[in-house]
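INTERNAL AUDIT FORM
Audit reference: QA-55
Scope: verify that the stored structure record matches its stored sequence.
Auditor: D.O.
Record contents follow.
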Amino acid sequence: MWIDTHCHLDAEEFDADRDAVVERARAAGVTMMVLPAAHTAHFAAAAAAAARYGFAYALGLHPLWLQDATADDLARLREAARAALADPRFVAIGEIGLDYFVADADRERQRSFYREQLRLARELGLPVILHVRRSADDLLSELRRIEVPGGIAHAFNGSAQQAQQFVERNFKLGFGGALTYEGSRRIRRLATELPAHAIVVETDAPDIPPQWLRQGGAALRNEPAELPRIADVLGRLRGISADELAALNRANALAALPRLAAALAAAR
């Protein structure tokens, strides 16, 4: 059984064929997904998709969705997260973090919202699902000040030293479609050299499509059904079988997101 630890199944890109997407994923062996919400407007859709298909979800404010966010959005997140504690499918605060890839990003605004969401996670005793893009040092800096139970650093592409610091704070590092690019030397090296307990696999569907979905410079929509093939690349890099990697991914996902055990039990 495969767990996709990061999939935006509630995204509008799947509105036309969401049932078929889930069927293809299950046929490929992906029986659990974690669906991180990115904005207050997405909270209900993520929770509804998790309930409909028997998956898990997280609630958070994504750094690239903060341009119109206010203190009211933080209040709505707090209210929604507190209410969701009664739902076994709710597993984390996320997707939150910092994104410095965009040239005109308001870094202090992002850090302010990130800090408040870390405080909420600490208050509720929840792990976090982190968005990390050219921002690992600042993410870690805030984690030193506001400690949380851990979580997943999604789509990790930092240095080995940064990776170690996340691992020391009980984070797993997510590897997905970028791992399949031959030019992703640092990601491949990290995926090969990190300790086995530090890695999880993900798709970030519909985003970060693997190499085989990139044709003539265009990228096709990513799907959770691609997870086993992405994982096969990781397994070959690490020299382990698909069954071994699937079991490792499950154990690590449960360690990062303890409430996922209840979601798995509810899905049976």
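Auditor finding: record pair retrieved intact. The mean pLDDT is 96.
Action required: none
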